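Question (not urgent): is this output format expected?
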Amino acid sequence: MIVKLNQMLERLAQRMRKACVIVIFERLQIQAKPHKNIWETNRMRTPKTIKRDLLSKFRSGLDKYDTIPSTWLRDKYLSLLSLEEKDHFNQAVSDLIEKGLIERVNDYNPSLRLTDKGADLIC
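Got this back:
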């Protein structure tokens, strides 16, 4: 009786190890899938969507800083835009500046800073 119980427990342990390995493998596969980046879309970025992107970037980092660094603008955002979309970007930034929501900082490495009016809008 004890031998049978030990054999049953051993089989159960083997099944559980297999189940654990399967669950861990499935979780690793899920984590290994690339996340869709909001900036990598196939559709054309209009000035409206670019404004939304910029304000969303400010919103996501508001507790850390009120400026979008030039490195992020250059490397992570502008590098993904086509020439036409870069024109839309300049138009969107000009519109946001005219509305008083953001301002340009530093002409050499341009960054964008959120104004008090912009912070009130996105909070």
